[in-house]
Design goal:
Layout (H helix, E strand, L loop, with lengths): L1 E12 L6 E12 L3 E5 L6 H8 L7 E6 L2 E2 L5 H11 E5 L10 H11 L6 H10 L15 H13 L5 E5 L7 H17 L3 E5 L3 H4 L4 E6 L2 E7 L3
Parallel strand pairs: 3-8, 3-9, 6-7, 7-8
Antiparallel strand pairs: 1-2, 1-4, 4-5, 9-10
Helix pairs in contact: 3-5, 5-6
Bound molecules: adenosine-5'-diphosphate (ADP) (2 copies).
Length: 227
């Protein structure tokens, strides 16, 4: 089943002499439950693409459908709801809120939705992510690997349809990196969740079932990895 469809996506920043074309007429389809790695040189448009897939950054032109919904056909309010409920975003530097503790960071998207925190889900995630005993720690009291596990918890809290990760292991040593990838893969398998990871790490990209290469705003390679 098709979960994501991108059609003629173009994104430019600035104008006149300062105009940068970050994405240039990109089209592709991603199947539900796939694990896709996105690779390519720095500045090639990878983060821009991920942000547009996640409803964070509007395309200049072109369309994104997620689960049959025209994402940028939504008004701002519905787009914000879409971001909180359908998508989980994970960043290289975690983007945790420094004054909130582990549980508060993880449950923020739920609370922003005016919903009650599902305690069972929270307990489950704290266990899966090996964060028990850390519930009331602030981000600066945690190691890098732990902070990234909290950010995964936040991303998974709402059981998103698509999990998007921008260099999630870029700031971690190889042991912590593989731990993080295993957690993402487990969620991908358990919930038939679609996983899209930007990575420079060939060993991580090879664990995906598809590798998209972006160069200069265009998809230049689309490789299926046999399992
Ligand atoms: P990558 O993730 O592959 O490193 P990005 O998507 O971050 O690439 O950037 C693609 C291009 O768009 C780069 O030339 C970058 O400088 C430019 N760019 C990204 N974000 C902005 C922005 N907010 N304003 C202006 N230019 C930007
Ligand atoms: P990792 O192997 O995950 O990178 P570290 O070697 O950075 O872990 O940290 C080892 C332990 O010390 C971890 O359990 C972590 O929670 C704890 N720790 C790291 N930084 C701090 C800090 N600033 N305050 C309190 N505890 C910390």
């Amino acid at each position: 089943m098709e979960i994501l469809k991108v059609e003629n996506l173009t994104k430019t920043y600035g104008d006149g002499d300062n105009m940068v074309k970050a994405l240039d007429d990109v089209s592709f389809v991603i199947e539900k439950g796939d694990f896709v790695a996105i690779t390519g040189p720095s500045g090639s448009g990878k983060s821009t693409l991920l942000h547009i897939l996640g409803g964070v950054d509007r395309p200049t032109s072109g369309k994104v459908w997620m689960d049959g919904r025209d994402v940028y056909g939504l008004d701002e309010e519905m787009l914000a709801v879409f971001r909180r409920r359908q998508v989980g975003l994970i960043y290289q530097f975690y983007n945790l809120i420094p004054v909130l503790d582990v549980v508060e960071n993880m449950t923020l998207p739920v609370l922003m939705d005016g919903k009650e925190v599902a305690q069972e889900r929270l307990t489950d995630l704290l266990g899966t992510l090996n964060l028990h005993g850390r519930e009331n720690h602030l981000p600066n009291q945690l190691s890098g690997g732990q902070q990234q596990r909290v950010s995964i918890g936040r991303a998974l809290m709402n059981e998103p349809v698509v999990l998007l990760a921008d260099e999630p292991t870029g700031n971690l040593d190889s042991k912590n990196s593989q731990d993080i990838i295993e957690l993402l893969k487990a969620s991908n398998r358990k919930y038939d969740q679609t996983l899209i990871i930007i990575t420079h790490d060939e060993a991580i990209a090879r664990q995906a079932n598809r590798i998209l290469t972006i160069e200069d705003g265009k998809i230049t390679r689309d490789e299926v990895i046999p399992s």
